[in-house]
Every structure is written in C-alpha cells, then in structure tokens.
Amino acid sequence: MNCGGRTPATVRCKYCSTCLTVTAGERAVQCSQCCGVTRVVRRSMRLPLLPALPRPMAPAGSFPCSRSKKRAVLIGITYAGTRRGCGELRAPVNDVKCMRHLLCQRFGFPSDGIIMLTDDQKDPFRLPTKDNIRMAMQWLVQGCSYGDSLVFHFSGLGAQVPDEDCDEADGYDEAICPMDSFQKGPILDDEINEAIVRPLVPGAKLHAVVDACHSATVLDLPFFCRTSRTGNWQWEDHRPPSGACKGTSGGQAVLFSGYSDGKSKFSVTPQAYATVGAMTHSFIKAVECEPCGVTYGRLLTSMKAIMTNGGGSCNLQGPIGAPVSKVANFSGVQEPNLSSSEMFDIYRKPFVL
C-alpha cells in the first residue's frame, strides 16, 4: 500500500501501521516505533519504480590495504539513542573487543587485518551503518584465495522477514540490523550469503559467529547442525525448496549461531561496561578452555554447557576480562547451532582458524 507521495516511497508497518519511508532499492524496512520489519514487495504494492542504488565502494584509505591470509570483520552495535522505549544493548562493543583479542592472541590474526565497526567510534567509516557493513563484507572476501582464513562476527539485533523467494524452509528470511536500520532497513540473509559466502574459492574458509536474535540461519547456508533427541549433534538438509544455490565457489563457510524457542526472556543487564553477549561469551570461553585442535563437536558441546550453566565464571582473557561480571543474553539464545556450506564429521574435524 502506498501511503505517501511518489517520492520518497512509503509503506505501512505490518505490525503497527506506522508510515515508513522506503529507501530506493531496499527489500525491507524497519519500524522505529515497534522495531518490526516489513517486507517491501513491489509487485503487490503500487510503489514507484525507483532504480536500485549502486553498492557503496570504500574510499581509498578507509579500510586496511593489508591482504593478510587471516582477515576479520567484527561488528558490535549498542543502538544507543535509536530504539525508542527499548534502551540500548550493553554487550556488543565488549564482544568485539574480546573477539579481536582472541583472534590476535590465540590465532595470530594481524591487527591490520581486522576491521572493527562499533557505534562508539568517531571515524565515520568505522560506524556499523548499512553502507559500511556492506563495504566491510566486500573487503573481507575481495581477492580471496587458497589458504585464506576469514572471520565475520556480528553482535547486535537480528530480525525475521517473510520470505518471498521460496528459498526458506520456515518461510522467513533472517537479517541483521545495522545502526541505521530504521532509516535504511536490515541486511537480509540472501545478501549476506551473496556477499561473503558465494565468493569463497577452493581452499578459502570463512567462520562466522553471530550473536543476535533470529540468527540461526543468517548466512543462508544449506546444511544445519543441532542436537537430536538423543543428545548427539546431527546434520539437517536445509537446501532451499526453490533449488537456489546457497553454497560457495569451492571454499567452505561455517556459522556459529544460536537457537531460541521464542519463549526465553531477553535480559540486558544495566551495567554500562561489565557485560558480554551470551553467544559470543560461550564461543570465546569454549575456545580458551579447550585444547588446540578441538573438534567442532566438542567445541559445540562445551559452548552448550557454558550456556546451560548461565555463563559460569565470566572471567575472560583480554582487555575487558577482569571487569566483566555478567553475561547479557540480549539475543535470547538457549543453545548453539552450527551451519555449513557442506556436511562434515563434526566429531573428527578439528576447529582451526
């Protein structure tokens, strides 16, 4: 339904009927009143046929020139001052700091091979806007080659949007919400898959850790692993009914994300500094506690035990380890999941970055 003039285009929020401005070329828009995400279906809405905006290109010098074999994009968003009546998340910036320390100290990632996008930075190209996240994803995989080890980490809010491509078994696309999601909309899993999964060439590997609600399949990977009724980790075939290709160009992509039954209460602790996200915390703590060469299966089991224990001891190594006193389960995650571009024996394959 077109509820405004022809320029700019507007649609009604699916949940609260607020009139929302639609950015040209975007497929979804998020409401600043209720935080709900509305799909922009142009074939059924009499919206003006605006041309899609070109994907942003990073200006020279805005991102590192280093082409290390180990590269990472780490994103943490508190949404300070943007969520009306909902407050801000306290953990995401700390999550990014902890993840950076882990990558540098444990896995030898060079500091100039890591891009951190957080909404407390002064550099406009280091803010987690939709355009900057898109440019960072492009930087991460650009020119990827055999032996590359890439990491994508997101800590913030996620969303679900009704699927219109018939490529989702549950009928919903997942999405991550940039800091300007209320102005430009979320980034859908279809775009994330196209941006950082499809370009992976043989011998290149991507690991993603997403600490957000509705994040279980946010990379749109075709195979999904979770615990069965017997307690064992078991693969499920989630290849889209439409037959669309969601795999790589010969490389491998693996996502650590979280499952929620929708009944758990999100909890954000009030301390401004002493919090980390539950999903990020369980991943980092499990990696720190397990020996090098731990299998994916053992790592997942360790993460699940940490979550079940409510985080246990929150002491983490690194720049904010000592002050952390509480784990903020802002994403409502109850247990970890794994998804991948290909199935493998998780009880034999070692986790290596």
From TrEMBL:
UniProt feature coiled coil, ranges: none
Organism ancestry: Eukaryota, Viridiplantae, Streptophyta, Embryophyta, Tracheophyta
Protein name: Peptidase C14 caspase domain-containing protein
UniProt record similarity statement: Belongs to the peptidase C14B family.
Residue intervals of the Peptidase C14 caspase domain: 69-341
Name of one Pfam family that matches: Peptidase_C14
Gene3D superfamilies: 3.40.50.12660
